[in-house]
């Protein structure tokens, strides 16, 4: 079982599945329906973004990688690159089946992704990597639902901000658990650049902002209460990771829980 979980995590299949589930959930909240082509397009986009990012990291590693994910991509670099090219081809073919509005939104996501990788190329320290990555990820899960809307509401922007804060906290937490391996490998991370104390303060600040938004939305009836309670459950689940870091570091439980929060909206789809 551990090997299966590690395989799924190394290939970012759990992240991809969580993105698809979250996007389907948002479609339900927005009262729109996503076609199979839109769902496939999202899965391809998210998987490629994360896979290229991991291949990039594996290529930058000096010597033999210590981080399991980097080591996996370093060991199977050519094979994964070949699969990524095939998946990219599938994505191009699928793009011709998408609605025109979804294609236009998709071009925006492509532009954001290119800017993200340009930032990684130009920046030496990657101080804002987590901020940028969270925005690209959330833009991906919103592309489908937003492109199907006929009437827009400013509350959709509020939900975007809330999911962005969840993704940002998610990406801030992982470097805290991986400081030792990143340091030994010579990799940069926000936890190493800012220090664990400052990173934890940033996590709590982002979580508090999200919870204030939840209280305002529920208190004034600005949004779907069920959606707000879902976001609250996701936010609190992330904060629990700060309570028992030593225990959660075993068997990569912090990643299972951290990435698993994007599976929670799936409960509303049952």
Topology:
Blueprint: H1 2-10, H2 13-30, H3 36-60, H4 68-75, H5 77-95, H6 100-122, H7 129-147, H8 154-177, H9 179-185, H10 190-194, H11 196-220, H12 225-239, H13 245-248, H14 253-260
Helix pairs in contact: 2-3, 2-7, 3-4, 3-5, 3-7, 6-7, 7-8, 8-11, 8-12, 8-14, 11-12
Could you walk me through the main structural features you see in this protein, from its secondary elements to its overall organization?
The chain has 270 residues and is mostly helical. It has a single domain (2-265), classed as Farnesyl Diphosphate Synthase (Orthogonal Bundle). 77% of the residues lie in helices and 0% in strands. The protein has 14 helices and no strands. It has helices at 2-10, 13-30, 36-60, 68-75, 77-95, 100-122, 129-147, 154-177, 179-185, 190-194, 196-220, 225-239, 245-248, 253-260. It is globular, with a radius of gyration of 18 Å.
Q: What are the main properties of this structure?
A:
single chain; 270 residues; mainly alpha; Farnesyl Diphosphate Synthase; 14 helices; 77% helix; globular
CATH topology: Farnesyl Diphosphate Synthase
The number of E-state strands comes to 0
SSE topology string: HHHHHHHHHHHHHH
Report how far the terminal alpha carbons are from each other: 25 Å
Label the overall shape: globular
Largest sheet: none
Q: Which CATH class applies here?
A: Mainly Alpha
- Tell me the strand percentage band: under 5%
Rounded to an integer in angstroms, the radius of gyration calculated over CA atoms is 18 Å
Task: Name the CATH architecture.
Answer: Orthogonal Bundle
How many domain modules?
1
Structural class: mainly alpha
Would you tell me the overall average pLDDT?
89
Q: Helical element count?
A: 14
Helix content: over 70%
Q: Give unreliable regions as ranges.
A: none
